[in-house]
Structures are given as structure tokens and as C-alpha cells.
User: Fold this.
Amino acid sequence: MPRSGTGIGPLGSAQDWSRAHPLATDALLALGVLVCMIVMSFADPNGPHGPTFGTRTPHAGSLVLMVLGSASLVLRRRRPRAVLAATSVLSLLELATGDPRAPVAICTVVALYTVAARTDRPTTWRVGLLTMTGLTAVAMLAGPLPWYAQENLGIFAWTGMAAAAGDAVRSRRAFVDAIRERAERAERTREEEARRRVAEERLRIARDLHDVVAHHIALVNVQAGVAAHVMDKRPDQAKEALGHVREASRSALNELRATVGLLRQSGDPEAPTEPAPGLGVLDELVDTFRHAGLPVELALDGTGGTDGPLPAAVDLAAYRVIQEALTNVRKHAGSGAKAEVSVVRVGKSVEVTVLDDGGSGPPPAGEPATRPGGTHGLLGMRERASALGGTCYAGPRYGGGFRVHVILPV
Assistant:
């Protein structure tokens, strides 16, 4: 992956330029190696007071080998193994025929470093040992200097250091790349987790809004229909039905206002002024359906007392499941339908069951006669149960009617 723009100061700018222009960088390196080889070819390393310049002159053939070796380094990144092979051959020719010695082996040192830095460790060991032993053996056995000359040992040392340095650079580059990859993966994971939480929150809000709106609007629809039906003959009953309409609409508006208020707050929401709905107010919920003309029998067992109160999430989920199930009964069951609600705590779970007998007539006007499994209400009940690790079954009963059975782990 590109890494430009990561340097700091002049050194960083030079590194960025080198990565952007690799061929020009290798050409400059090849020129520098050629200059070093030419200067070293005029020096005698065995002078009385160290290296002495001007005491020897390289042969024309040695100059040609130095030019060819340095020129091949221009392609060291594109064809590292081919460049290593070419410089090794040129170095062997110089070691076997050159007199006085020209440092063509410098090209092989650079090429071996490149191979070690751009391949794996086994390849570096094989190629490095072959190059070190080959050049050193030819220098000792066929070179113009004695086999024990320090120049021969220097070839072995320099090629070994080149292989070790290239392997170290490759290892460090791999380590840095691994750290960068882990950082990028962690960043992607954080973004995915944030998107997942946003999606879950949107789904939760959609479920709550659906439960609130569907329940209250269904009651308003039923009571409005009753009021319209008895308006002329029984005005007192019509007035009572309109009162239930007003009460249901007020409750719906209050719950919607509370939900929207939480969504509009930019910081942490303040503590709610009313507790979240739960099984503690289940009687009030059932009464609203009874007022709407749906007989409901309620049975609670073990949801508190010695077993302790239910967790808030389980309590809310059970309440919402019952609310949605009874709303579906009122909307889809036939006239004269009856419902039964039971909440039983069994061991480490709570079982919520809502039954209806299907009624004896058609459902209210404008409502379908069946309850398809893909409605938002049934889907919301299944999502609530699965979010808590529970299960949800909703389907027709044998002999007529509908059954909703939810198991929520405590």
C-alpha cells in the first residue's frame, strides 16, 4: 500500500521522493557505487601508512566490469535475482582475472542486500550462502592474491553482512506492515460496531413506535366505530366510547412525545419522569382492551415475590409482546373473540402466552381476516425474544384462533 506523506523533515521528504521515483533512486545509487569502485581501484590498501592512492591503475577490462556491474544495479528492484546473478558473474571474472584487484564485488554486495530485503528468509539463506562461498572460494583458489589475503576474507564478511542487513530490513518492514494492518482492522471493526449499534437502536425505536402506535390507534379505531354505530340510539354509550378515544389518543401522544424527546436530546438523556412500562402496569393495559370490547382473562404466576423482580429488559419485552398480541387479536380476530393472557415464571425463564378463540364472526371492518407471519408486529415480537436469547412462536391454534408463546430467559 502507498506510504507517501509519512516522512518528517528533509529526510522524510527524501524518502517520499525515493518511493515515488524508484528507478531514478536506483540510478543514483548505481552512479554512487561506480564512483566508489573507481576511487577504490586507484588505492593500494597495503601501503606503509594505510591505503595509498596513485600507486596502481586499474585495467581497461576492470573498468568495463565496474561499469557493467553498476549499470545492472539500476534494475535491482525489478529483477533482483537476475541482477544478483549478473553481478556475481562479473565479480567472479574480476576475481579470477583482475590484476590489480578492482572492487567489482561491491555490486554483488548491493544486489545480495536487495534480494534479502525483498524475499523470504529461506531464500536469503540459500542465495546468501551460495554467493558468499562461491565468491570467497574463487578469490582464494583462482585469484591473484594469496588465499589468506585480507581482501578474500573481506569478500566473505561483506557479503554476509549484506544478507543479514537485508533480512533485518525485510523483517522490520513486515513488522511495521503488520502493525499498520492491525490498526486498520481495528478501525474498521470500530466503524462496523458503531454501524451495528446504530442499526440496532433504529430497530429498537421502530419496534417501540410500532407497539405504541398500533396499540393505541387500534383502540381509537374500535371505539370510534362503536361511537358511530350507537350515536343515534344510545348517546350515553357513544359518549363513553369517545371518552375512551380521547384517553387512548392522549396516551399515544404522551408516549410518542417521550420517545421523540429522547431522540432530540444531543447529550445523555435525563432520567424519565415515568417508569418504563412493564408487567406492573399490565392490569391497566388489559383494562384498555376490555373497555374496547375484548374480554381478556389474565393470569400471573411467579413474576415477582420470592423469585425477585424481573430484569428491566425482560419486563419490558414481556409487556410489549402482550400489548402487540392483544392488539392483533382486536384487529384481526372475529367479533365476539375472547383472549387469555398468562405469564408464568418457570425456573430461569418467563413464559408469556396469549390465546384467542378466533371469535364467531368477521373481523372489524377494514382489517384482514388472517394474521400473516410477515407483519411488523409479529416480526417485532420475534426480534424482542431473540435479542434476549429467547424464542417466539406465533401461529394458528387447532380448532380456530391464534396462539402466541414467548419464552424469555431471566
Summary: The chain has a mean pLDDT of 78. The radius of gyration is 43 Å.
